[in-house]
Every structure is written in structure tokens, then in C-alpha cells.
Specification:
Elements (H helix, E strand, L loop, with lengths): L1 H4 L14 H18 L26 H4 L3 H11 L20 E5 L5 E2 L3 E7 L14 E8 L4 E5 L1 E3 L4 E7 L4 E11 L1 H12 L5 E9 L6 E10 L12 E5 L6 E5 L9 E9 L5 H6 L7 E2 L1 E2 L4 E4 L22 E4 L2 E4 L9 H7 L4 E6 L1 H13 L4 E2 L11 E5 L4 E7 L10 E2 L6 H6 L7 E5 L10 H21 L4 E5 L13 H15 L5 E4 L1 H6 L11 H15 L3
Helix pairs in contact: 4-11, 10-11
The structure holds 2-acetamido-2-deoxy-beta-D-glucopyranose (NAG) (5 copies).
Length: 558
């Protein structure tokens, strides 16, 4: 087993990690499974450009059982993620043009009533103004009223023939206008998809090794990455130190330092990015062509009151499904269609959080929740854990009310710029395994933004682990509140990060938890997609405030 000879002494700084034995067993196990499964292949990408990408298309060959799920579930997930494949194009002008694509309102009426829909048709055209003949463009649509600070999200249905339709609900009284943007052309989505399915490492990470007393400390920095896929995917041969987390199943690799041994890995940070695009792909990806508003029917729609419109009365509880739209903004307040949400004053927040231990896991977007609580909840004070405020872990307490709030980032891969102790990066599934749970425990996690750089199969594998841990937690302590906060939109448009990828991850998370009783899903995708603030990976305070009201409406429904 070549990967084995690469590892050093089995003294490992990674929490819950054992080097030699585990790597060996795990690798043999996976190889055996691959053999058994005959290596189910992922659908190969059809290149849209005229020239194939040079040697950069190494697709991962991962089977459902490698991911820890059944073949049936993998089929289901692939169907849920299915996205139309564009035709081959040979010229840039054949890609979808935001300038020539347009939308229109079908059967526009003088006036509407609250609760009615309007139907919008989007027509995609290329740069020669020709109608597109196939689907796959990524549009985002919403209805809005700036003066009322009102907006609602609409789902775009792809007819796979160059036309798309959106039914937009008219949830508020007054005026409304349609807004549609082309996030990515189908051609660009296909490029993103190609690199998401492949194991090409678009991101790298740094591993900081150190040994000896501070005055004479030896330091070395090397590149690290995830080991995933057909015999490793990143570096091969006798290159690397390997760190396997037995419970999470993840193998982390760092290039073997010249002087220090593998057990001297101490810190971690995000590293350089690597652009896999060829020239043609690069041109398709031009910033001028992505995330652009398209022209169309800007008619002001008049919406009249409707006494018959039904209000949600359902109490917020686990197991509710998320419709489209999941709610809407009016005067910057999110009114949910999932259940009866309310707004919490700082005193009500303090009351709701009384006798609670809140565990926030994930990334900087759950840290925003932590910071929001810290700012709003009277008497809540951050303990000094001597960690970096951006990297955590963080903890805040309110002694009078016996409230504790924890925040912690998930394990590697994690692209924080800050150099963090690798011992502080814990896998969400492992963390959940260590919570006894109960009526006082509120467990919230987000797992999205940092995973867009890596194969979707790895994401499925990790979500399966998290699901296992959640099921076990709810079995030992059914009164535990478990909340999934979806990934939010970020308006990002590069080969490294794009909302299309984040949407795919959200679909996987939602699908994989669909049948798990007792779990709450908070869809912040819709909440961020339709808000008037420019899309940003860290949503503005007004959005966070609405997200927190959603959360607390579940924690304290009465
Ligand atoms: C793809 O695989 C080949 C053969 O294993 C290897 O030589 C090459 O470096 C890989 N390319 C990338 C980008 O991973
Ligand atoms: C890339 O894909 C093509 C077509 O599927 C294949 O012929 C080629 O061997 C692949 N290259 C690598 C390095 O995997
Ligand atoms: C509005 O559109 C949605 C989505 O297509 C549909 O489910 C709903 O029934 C429609 N409502 C009305 C009142 O037409
Ligand atoms: C595309 O498909 C939709 C739905 O089947 C149909 O209503 C529409 O007429 C088609 N448009 C074109 C241009 O073929
Ligand atoms: C909880 O905290 C709030 C705000 O500090 C305070 O007004 C209230 O008295 C506290 N409740 C208890 C039981 O200490």
C-alpha cells in the first residue's frame, strides 16, 4: 500500500486521528468496495468548448457505498441535482447573452389580488440574438417593491428548449415589479459542473509545522489538501503525510516537510487558488457575462387586498416542509409560509434562550448568528477563550438566565485566511456525537460555503456522516432541537465559488435530511436570494435578524 509508507510516527495532533493503522484499513476497505461495486462511474462531462482542457479532467470514480449511502439514494440525489447539459458550442457568440435574453409577463392584468400568481416567461438568446435551443441557464427571479422593502423569491422552471417560466406569488398589497438576472449561462454552468465533478484541486491549503521551544523553534509551511477519490486525487506516491479522522472518514494530506516529521502539524489556513480554465472557458466566464440583470417587462403590477388570503397558523416545529416561496419580506420583516414566525425583542430573546445551550457549528455565517446574539441579548458576555475572534471556537454566557452559546468552525477542508490551530477544527459529525442533548440543547449547523471547492461526492459522504450523528442524537435525546441552516446566496461568480454550486449542495443537504424526523430546516437561500441588499457571502444585519427570528420561532414557538 504505497500511501502507507508515506506516513510517519502514529503520534498525530489531529483530534480523533490515528495515522498508520487506520489509513491502511480504510484504504483497503475502500479498494475492496470499489472492486465489489465495479466502480460506478460518474457521468463524464461533455466539453462545451472547442478545445479539451489539457489533462485536467480527472473525474473521481466514487461509488455510492464509498459515500456511505445506498445506490438508490445516490440515484435520487443525482436526479435532484440533475441539470440540463448544453450543446457543444464552437464560438463564444453561441453562449447565452444577458443582453439579448429577456422576460415577459404572461397575460398581464390590470390588477391582481394578494395570493394570486403572475407567470413570467424567460427567453434565452445567444449573442447573435438567436433563440437558445436547450436549457441549463441559471436564472434567478424575484418580485420586489423597494419602497415597501418587500420581495419574494420565485423558482425558475427550465423547459429545456431555451424558455423558462417562473410563477411569482403576489404576497403583499400594493405595487410590485419583476426582476430576473442571468447568474450563469448554461455553458458556464457546465464548466463549473465539470470541475465540481472532477478532483482537480481548485484550492490549496497551508499546513504549518513546528517543533522545539519558541526560541529555537523549527518551522515549515507546506501545501495540504483533501485526499478523496481514486487513489488520492491530489498528490500521489511517497509525497505526503496523511491524517485520517477515523470517525469522519476524512483523509487530509500535507506534503511531507523537509525537516519535521508528520506529527508536527500545528496550524492550518487556506492557501493558493488554482485556475483550471482554458482560454475559451475563461472567456465564457468573463465577469461581464455573469450575474447580470436581464431586460424585460418592468410594468408595475397592482396588487389589491384579499380578505380570503389565508395566513399561516402552523406552529413552528420540526418536520415541516419548505415551500417555494418559503416566505416574503415586507418592510424588511420576513413573513414565513413554513410556520408562524414572530419577532423577538432583546428581552424576549434572553427569555427564549433561558436554560439553553446553543451549539452553532459550521462557518463564518453561523458565527454571524453568534455575533448577533452577543450584540442583542442583554447580559450575554463572551468568555475569553484565547482564540482568534474570526476563527474561534467562541463561547458566550448569560449567567442569570443560564444561557450558553458556542460557536465552532467545521473541520478541514476549510478556507479561512486566518492561521488557526488545526486542533480547533472539528468535524460537525464528531461534535454532534459528543453532545448528550435534551430539551435544553439547540444544535445548529451550516455546511456549504467551504465545500464548493471539492467534489460533490465528498460532500455527500460528509453529509451522510452528519446525518448518522443527528439520527443518533435524536435517538438518545429526542427533545433536542436540531436545526440545519442552509447555505446562503453570495452572488459569487468565479470558477472557485459560485451560487450554482452552493445551490447544488443545498439540494443534497435538503434531500438527505428529507426523511429524518425531528430536524428543522431553515432555508436562508430564499431569504438571501430575494433581499434588496447586494448578495454577499456574509448577509447584512437585517437579514441575519430575520434568520434569528426564524430560529427562535422554532426554539420558542409559544
Ligand atoms: C490526472 O491524472 C494523471 C494520471 O494519473 C496525472 O498525471 C495528472 O497529474 C492528473 N492531473 C490533475 C490535474 O490532477
Ligand atoms: C480526460 O478525458 C478524456 C475523455 O474522457 C480521456 O480520454 C483522457 O484520458 C482523460 N485524461 C485524463 C488525464 O484523465
Ligand atoms: C402559484 O404558483 C405555484 C407554483 O407554480 C402553484 O403551486 C400555486 O398553486 C399557484 N397558486 C395560484 C393561486 O395559482
Ligand atoms: C418550450 O417548451 C414549453 C413547455 O413544454 C412550451 O410551452 C414552449 O412553447 C416551448 N418553446 C419553444 C420555443 O419551443
Ligand atoms: C434574564 O435576562 C434578562 C436580561 O438580562 C433579565 O432581565 C432577566 O431578569 C433574566 N432572567 C432571570 C431569571 O435571571
Amino acid at each position: 500500500m504505497p500511501s502507507m509508507q508515506t506516513s510517519d510516527a502514529p503520534v498525530c495532533r489531529l483530534r480523533q486521528c490515528v495515522l498508520l493503522q487506520a489509513c491502511f484499513l480504510w484504504t483497503s476497505f475502500c479498494l475492496a468496495l470499489w472492486a465489489l461495486n465495479g466502480g460506478t462511474h460518474i457521468k463524464q462531462f461533455q466539453l462545451p468548448g472547442p478545445k479539451p482542457a489539457p489533462q485536467k479532467n480527472n473525474s473521481s470514480i466514487i461509488s455510492a457505498s464509498d459515500m456511505g449511502i445506498s445506490d438508490e439514494e445516490w440515484d435520487r440525489l443525482q436526479k435532484a441535482m440533475d441539470w440540463p447539459i448544453p450543446d457543444q458550442i464552437t464560438d463564444l457568440s453561441q453562449s447565452t447573452s444577458p443582453v439579448h435574453s429577456s422576460f415577459s409577463i404572461v397575460g398581464l392584468k390590470e390588477s391582481y389580488k394578494v395570493g394570486e400568481n403572475i407567470s413570467v416567461t424567460i427567453t434565452a438568446r445567444d449573442f447573435n440574438k438567436n433563440l437558445k435551443r436547450y436549457g441549463g441557464d441559471f436564472f434567478k427571479a424575484k418580485l420586489f417593491n423597494s419602497a415597501l422593502k418587500a420581495s419574494v423569491y420565485g423558482e425558475v422552471v427550465d423547459h429545456r428548449n431555451g424558455t423558462y417560466s417562473v410563477d411569482l406569488l403576489l404576497p403583499w398589497e400594493g405595487q410590485a415589479q419583476v426582476f430576473v438576472r442571468l447568474e450563469h449561462s448554461s455553458e458556464v454552468v457546465q464548466i463549473i459542473k465539470k470541475y465540481t465533478d472532477s478532483t482537480f484541486p481548485r484550492t490549496h491549503f497551508n499546513g504549518y509545522f513546528g517543533s522545539g521551544p519558541s526560541k529555537k523553534r523549527i518551522r515549515e509551511v507546506v501545501e495540504c489538501n483533501l485526499k478523496w477519490g481514486e487513489d488520492g486525487s491530489w498528490k500521489k506516491g511517497n509525497c505526503c503525510c496523511e491524517y485520517k479522522d477515523i470517525r469522519a472518514g476524512t483523509v487530509w494530506q500535507c506534503i511531507r516537510p523537509k525537516i519535521l516529521s508528520c506529527d508536527k502539524l500545528v496550524h492550518h489556513s487556506g492557501g493558493r487558488l488554482e485556475n483550471p480554465l482554458n482560454r475559451f472557458e475563461q472567456q465564457l466566464f468573463s465577469k461581464k457575462l455573469t450575474n447580470i440583470a436581464i431586460g424585460g417587462d418592468k410594468t408595475i403590477i397592482n396588487v389589491l387586498p384579499n380578505a380570503a388570503a389565508i395566513d399561516t397558523v402552523e406552529k413552528c416545529r420540526p418536520g415541516l416542509t419548505t415551500p417555494v416561496p418559503a416566505g416574503f419580506y415586507l418592510k424588511d420583516v420576513w413573513k414565513s409560509f413554513v410556520c408562524n414566525t414572530r419577532q423577538f425583542s432583546p428581552a424576549q430573546m434572553a427569555n427564549c434562550l433561558k436554560n439553553k445551550i446553543v451549539y452553532l457549528f459550521g462557518d463564518s455565517t453561523t458565527r454571524q448568528w453568534f455575533e448577533f446574539f452577543e450584540e442583542k441579548v442583554p447580559g450575554l458576555k463572551r468568555m475569553d477563550l484565547h482564540t482568534h475572534p474570526g476563527g474561534g471556537p467562541l463561547m458566550a454566557v448569560q449567567l442569570n438566565n443560564n444561557t450558553v452559546i458556542h460557536w465552532r468552525v467545521h473541520g478541514v477542508p476549510l478556507r479561512f485566511a486566518r492561521i488557526l490551530p488545526i486542533t480547533d477544527l472539528h468535524y460537525i459529525s464528531n461534535e454532534i456525537d459528543e453532545i448528550a442533548g435534551g430539551p435544553h440543547a439547540v444544535v445548529v449547523f451550516t455546511y456549504c460555503a467551504h465545500l464548493v471547492f471539492h467534489p460533490i461526492t465528498y460532500y455527500v459522504f460528509q453529509v451522510a456522516k452528519i446525518r448518522q450523528s443527528v439520527v443518533a442524537l435524536l435517538s438518545r435525546a429526542p427533545d433536542t432541537t436540531v436545526v440545519i441552516k442552509s447555505g446562503n446566496t453570495a452572488g459569487r461568480k468565479s470558477i472557485y465559488q459560485s451560487d450554482w454550486q452552493a445551490l447544488q449542495l443545498n439540494i443534497v443537504m435538503q434531500e438527505m435530511f428529507k426523511d429524518i424526523d425531528g430536524v428543522i430546516y431553515i432555508d436562508v437561500w430564499q431569504m438571501t436570494s430575494c433581499h434588496y441588499l447586494p448578495e454577499y457571502i456574509h448577509p447584512g444585519p437585517v437579514i441575519i435578524a430575520n434568520e434569528i427570528d426564524m430560529l427562535l420561532s422554532y426554539v420558542c414557538p409559544n
